[in-house]
Amino acid sequence: MTGLVEQALSAAQNDRHNAFTRILADQARRDAATSKTGRLAGMPFAVKDLFDIAGLPTTAGARKRLDAMPAKADATVITRLKAEGAVLIGTTNMDEYAYGFATVNAHFGTTLNPHDLDRLAGGSSGGSAAAVAAGLVPLALGSDTNGSIRVPASLCGVWGMRPAMDDVPLEGVFPFVHALDTVGPFTRSLADLKLAYEVMSGRVLATASGTPRIARLTVFFARNAGPDALAAVAAIEAEPLDLSMADAARSAAFLITAAQGGALHLNTLKCSAMDYDPAVRDRLIAGAMLPSATYLRAQDLAVRWRAQVAEALERYDILVAASTPVTAPRIEDSTIEISGQTVSARANLGILAQPLSLAGIPVISAPVRKTGLPIGLQFATAPGREALLFDYLAGLEAGGIVGCA
Amino acid sequence: MQEPTHDRIAETARALGLDLPEACRPGVLANLDLLAQHAKVLDDYLAGDDA
Q: Do B39 and A278 touch (CB under 8 A)?
């Protein structure tokens, strides 16, 4: 039992990907010595550096917070994982305050993609995705507001899940955008993903029956997908479906994120703006300046978008789209090509994830079996139909269509 | 959303109680432009939907 934890500690200490920000060796050894039972007995895990850990400051990727008041208790999801015998071994790197899709952090450095050290791991939960992809830990937790689990899962070639809104508790998680924040797991197998999700949500999924009706999202989701992403989607047998509001939904998610993120940080920005990562600071300040009329129109759009998605999920059980428009970009390139245009990688790697975030539905990013750099596919369903989603994906995994390399 | 100007940015920052550091100005401007583009996408959709 303690062997797995020692192995993970050693791997984390020798990590070349800058995946970890803190390694909790003493605490992990203590827990490993006493955690002998449960569904996750002896499984080492890591958490993005925005989950509270009793006795430590929660940095949320900010240097300024290294001196923050230590957390009084573990985040609820950490407590649940530990209660099933999992052993926390460390915290992982992220974009500061979870605002970015790159895990390029001015204070803690850039996390490197285990498939190619010259490429981004994606973000904002990039340290967790890289730690799992590199085999340092079998399980890591991230947060997903606009795609911060699905984007790095796609670029690093691992499984990642964004649960439905309010499905998994956020107590003890540093907030970003209350309308969109969720937390979820990264793993290298679908079975581990399901197990971690069950423990985190406090639910046990039954086996689903029947053949699900699958729809492949077109137009916005195809127009903003590169050749690798389009090829991945084409491997799935599905009927085409256009969600006409997707483009506007993506913009609404962008605006709501900016406004709520800006409002959350405004007081801190007033006294210590220069302590922030400059790229994050300028986005937050701009968000705080967004006119309230624009924010309210984005909220109005969100209500209409959720109705359109709910209607689609009455006709189909599962919606499919690429998780990212492209495979992992080179770190030295700050831009990516989408739909013939050169755009910022940091702001746009989540373009295909953002509309589904705004819908509030559960989404799993599955690694596609392919040669070359990895890419993921999003599989979304209605809240409450997670069992059907996991069963369908188990079939795809068994068929060799999805799964970790 | 109207195109932001330097004066309007300074005015908005003051209204928020934010003493905008000079170093932030170019980045904030670029991000306000990006937000304006997204606001336009939203406005265009809602205008078409309301028509």
A: no
